[in-house]
Design brief:
By secondary structure, the protein is mainly β. It is built from 1 helix and 8 strands.
């Protein structure tokens, strides 16, 4: 019984250490939406990417495989607008198209590759 408690304590410590907010891999990324047309975005499973906008237009997303990545509205409180945010769901790749809300809205298409985070050498 004591051995089980010790194992659970070690697992809990490793889990907390692996989720440190100070890790560069866990920090949100940002890139201008205008810079990714027909490009490829690579993000790690535990990162998010905010697609910054030059205007106040809203975008709707079409995702070829919605099990890989989701697009949610990120509120930029400093500028009073909503920006698309890519949230990785599992490793893999998919195509994303964002369509602007204005009539005849601009369509931005790009490829997203979600990579698995590196396995920590501390375990083992």
């Amino acid at each position: 019984m004591r051995r089980t408690g010790a194992i659970l304590a070690v697992v809990a410590i490793l889990a907390v250490a692996g989720c440190s907010a100070d890790s560069a891999e866990n920090r949100p990324l940002a890139t201008p939406l205008s810079a990714i047309q027909s490009g490829t975005i690579r993000i790690s499973l535990h990162q998010v990417m905010v697609l910054t906008l030059a205007d106040h237009q809203r975008y709707t997303a079409q995702i070829a495989d919605p099990t890989i990545v989701a697009v949610v509205a990120h509120r930029d409180a400093a500028h009073g607008k909503f920006e698309p945010e890519l949230v990785p769901l599992k490793p893999g790749s998919t195509q994303v198209a964002l369509t602007g809300s204005t009539p005849g809205g601009e369509v931005i298409g790009f490829h997203v590759i979600v990579t698995a985070p590196p396995i920590s050498a501390a375990i083992g």
